[in-house]
Write a structure and sequence with these properties.
Blueprint lengths: L1 H11 L1 H21 L13 E9 L4 H17 L5 E7 L13 E4 L5 H7 L5 E4 L3 E3 L5 H16 L3 E9 L4 H10 L4 E4 L2 H9 L3 E4 L12 H10 L8 E4 L10 E2 L1 H10 L6 E3 L2 E2 L4 H25 L2 E4 L5 H13 L2 H33 L21 H10 L4 H7 L4
Helix pairs in contact: 2-5, 2-6, 5-6, 10-11, 12-13, 12-14
Amino acid sequence: MSALWKSLSDMANPDRLLQEAMASLIETVRAKDALGIARETWSHGKPLKLLLAGYVGARNTGADVRVEEMIRQFRTIFTDDALELTIMTLDPEKTAGYFSGARQIRIPMVFPKFLFDECPKHHGVVACEGSMFKSKFASALSTMMAGALGLASAENKLSVGYGAEAGAMDESLRDFVEKYCSKSLVLCRNEASRGILGEMGIRNTSGADTAWTFDPAPPSRGAELLRKAGWDGRRKILILCPINPFWWPIRPDLMKTLAWRIFGEYKNQHHTSIYFHHQSEESDRKYEEYIGAMAGAAKVFCHEENLFPVLVGMEGLMEKLLDKMRGMAGEAEAISDTIGRFIPSQLRLMGQMGIDLSREISARYPRYERRNVAEKWENYLPPLPPLIEGLLAKFGDFEGTRILKTRGIQ
């Protein structure tokens, strides 16, 4: 009976249904490619059309910044007339003015048919979200990116995951990724992800998060905003970034969608379209405890250390959190120094990612003309802001050589 119930549950699982729909479309594209039907092919002298698949347009700052810097890097590696970029966005109004030089197209929340139509129009797909292969946030998002990569692979086109992370996946998602990303190259932003993908037989190598080269507004702008909020210009600042860690993952749910549309139920769980957050009495209780603990600890800590608190909205708790904050107060300079030493190693890896991408394009399209520069990591980075250049000058030799020596495509 339990086996039968599991089988019925799997059949009704919206995430699994989404993966099965995507798998059918990938196989259709594979069959069309074998027959030479409606195939967009690259030829010498044409710009290389790349489709970027990620999580932009939801006002997730990290997701948007990473893609912004990827595009700047690509523009450095390849000339403008040799590359034609298209970025999928959930909401073009929220990404208006972003991603200079790239065409933006809206991706619907129910995406399989859209990907089936759009991916074959390009010469390759680059997946560009950090949480690329994991179920913790939303299996549907990983299905979208893996599906786009799978469609590119089905036509033997460029299929690359850029600055990716892999983690725990539902069984059906893991099977889907393992099958349809087997020909992709994934540049991972940490070594744990390499281990997971290696076990799945997916080609991978070391990479980095691409946000390190971002040039934010000048400090004077930050100071202006802080003074408007009541900062006296002298007190040290405590930045707090609370999240709700208890309402993930997001899952598609057709029954909840109907109840929400007809009766207005589940509105507190509704994310968008057919997708809903996890919610229960237990998760609500845990969130209240989490927020209460953070607020209480921050209040005591700011009073003790004379700090100005800033809350940044992000998409034995109290005592442990307060003890942690107290410990960090005496380590502020050391923590800042550690971060400064870490960044140059990430820039080296990001530059090497550019080299790896360029090599992968040449392997797929041998006549594509690469830049005539030495394959050194610094030649494959976008222009760096003064702050980052200063960190490179100060900490430039920190562990980067060791990391590059131990990397390699598996």
